[in-house]
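User: My instructor asked us to take a sequence, write out its structure as tokens, and then describe one feature of it. I'm not sure where to start. Here is the sequence I was given:
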Amino acid sequence: SSPIALNEPFSLRIGISKPKLDQVGSDFVLTSFTPSEIKLKPQVIATAHQALEKLVTTGLTRAMTEINQIS
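Assistant: Let's start with the prediction itself. The structure tokens for your sequence are:
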């Protein structure tokens, strides 16, 4: 695909972990990071930065393929 046009809407989802099976989604999203999740934040932010660069320069499909292979 081609590089994304600046007028096209897009979203980038960033996650560190998933909710427990019995946990309500809103409760999970509103909880504080655990100590192990806090340690992952720099890596997650770096990957998000890389994803945005790829999205803008290579387009959505290629960026998703490349980023999802490394995350």
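For the description part of your assignment, you could build on this observation: The chain is about 55% helix and 0% strand. Try explaining in your own words what that tells you about the chain.
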